Amino acid sequence: MGFKGFATYTIDNAKANELGVFALTFAQNDHGMAYLAAEDDKAFIVILAPGENLVLKGETLANSQSVTITSGRQNQLFEQYAGEHPRREQALRAWDYLERIYQQDSLFAIHEKPKNAILEEKQRIKEEDEAFLESLDPQTYVSWFLPARKLVSSVSTIAQYRTAEIPGAIAAFREIDYTDPRLYKSGLLRETIDAHYWLIENSGRPLDSVFIEMNISIDYMIDNLASDEKKFNEISQYLFNQLEQRSLFGASEYLALKILNGVSCTVDDNFANQLESYRAMKVGNIAPDIVFDGDVFQSGQSVATPARLSQVDAPYIVVVFGSSWCPMCPQELSAIKRMYDKWKKHGVEVVYVSLDENPNEFARSTSSYPFISFGDYKGWETSSAKDYHVFATPTMFLLGQNREILLRPHSVRQLDAWVDWVLVEGNN
Predict the structure, then answer these.
(1) Cβ distance 266 to 229 under 8 Å?
(2) What's the CA gap between 428 and 415, in Å, rounded?
(3) What predicted TM-score, i.e. pTM, was given to this entire model?
(4) Which one is predicted more confidently, 265 or 142?
(5) Which residue ranges make up each domain of the chain?
(6) Is the pLDDT of residue 247 over 80?
(7) CATH fold of 295-427, please?
């Protein structure tokens, strides 16, 4: 199995004979990292290098310790480092622990000799590791892969034990060339992006500072990708989705606006529509009016008024787009139902815009909601869904006077926290 960006593909397959012997072939476009996948789903990582005849001998791929690489110099170097580096890291963590004791505990802090010895041994271990990497032929794939793998795999240790190295690690991530074909063939693309932003998120900074650092990293990445439109779309969309899933909305909004306002690449239509919601519907803009040209229910009863969103009489309006077939909508709408009396007391009305196409499903799902529910049975073709650039459900907007967008909450919990902080506490 080979790697191609975020995906994997089959290079070749074979069945071992009665002696356990098998042979596989690969071509030039397969050069990079790969893995042998046996029927038991256990994987054995290898390097597919030009001019290198890789030969393995052992008992089972499931037990990598039983496998010896008898031919293939880059694979032998990879195997050596994969065995030595974790042991060095384990020793470093032990020395880090002792170093903290000799620095912070008054019983030991007075002893300079062991403190200096600890520092010297840590430095020796680091230099030994670096010396191995520097000894590799820079023309080989392994010389690129091992430092990249080391960086990605080190983030949790750096964040927890070696915080002084955080700025240097973040700087190293920013220097990565995301157009480099070696990265695309490494199987590290996903992990590199995840580790980069995870490290910033867990760097111990205040949230505002976290977003500043993430935005700087976004600038580096997007500017680097501008020369490769295909990779630009693939990687920026992955990053955007990851930031959204991890509720890092300040960074995802920055990424969306940077792509829409300052990038020359052509953005895939679906992705562009997803990003456009941040530009058209950002905080401070005026949300479009919604004409209720379908059925309007409240507590299961059809109501004659209001005829449009602008006629809803409330200082604050929460507009929620959802549907009965949306997995998360019943849970979020049930939470809104529980919060509604408190919100209503503080001037917050709720308007639910359903994307259901079946009138019976709409009536059934909204019959118990105490707030206004509207449906025109046009699904994603509902005018208000297009006007509000809705691409997923549930999607919520908090509007103030004259439909000014005050907040784009990504959960009922976030919205309820706003009500508590701004309206409840603010009135006390």
Answers:
(1) yes
(2) 19
(3) 0.77
(4) 142
(5) 2-71, 136-280, 295-427
(6) no
(7) Glutaredoxin (3.40.30)
